[in-house]
């Protein structure tokens, strides 16, 4: 997997066609199952991902799942999201809205024969804020998504 993948993007949010698109990839020394459990436990993100705060899942949900709505603070902004794709151990994606802008963030997991997992995280954003702050948002997303990937390794935060 290299560069943005072609399939699975909502209309108007293909990362190659929006003001802000980010792609990060890392092979981690963990199984897809271990990575998956860390990803869907969104309430625990702040323990190992410094750019996540105040994660609240709606409707009494404990883990992210199909259709789960959640709110969280990232990049200092409160974002409302909904899980759009939930294929255990393979793909997790959510849509989000904030300040008149919308985005789509997805995670792809590829188990490797040696027990490691190749993890891709991609995000696309469209709207006024991504248009105006394009360069800064791109840099920020790439930096923080890399930290998020590094935090997926089980154990203490990096």
TrEMBL record:
Cross-referenced InterPro entries:
Polyketide_cyclase/dehydratase, START-like_dom_sf
Name the SUPFAM superfamilies on file. Answer: Bet v1-like
CDD domains given in the database record? SRPBCC_4
Mind telling me what this protein is named?
Polyketide cyclase
Q: Which organism is it from?
A: Actinoplanes nipponensis
């Amino acid at each position: 997997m290299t560069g943005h993948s072609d399939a699975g993007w909502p209309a108007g949010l293909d990362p190659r066609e929006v003001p802000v698109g980010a792609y990060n990839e890392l092979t981690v020394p963990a199984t897809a199952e271990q990575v998956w459990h860390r990803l869907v436990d969104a309430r625990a993100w702040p323990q190992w991902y410094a750019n996540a705060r105040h994660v609240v899942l709606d409707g009494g949900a404990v883990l992210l799942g199909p259709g789960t709505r959640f709110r969280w603070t990232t990049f200092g902004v409160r974002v409302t999201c909904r899980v759009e794709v939930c294929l255990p151990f393979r793909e997790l994606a959510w849509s989000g809205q904030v300040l008149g802008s919308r985005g789509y963030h997805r995670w792809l997991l590829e188990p490797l024969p040696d027990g490691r997992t190749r993890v891709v995280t991609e995000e696309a954003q469209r709207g006024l804020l991504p248009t105006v702050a394009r360069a800064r948002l791109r840099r920020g997303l790439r930096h923080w998504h890399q930290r998020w990937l590094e935090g997926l390794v089980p154990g203490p935060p990096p």
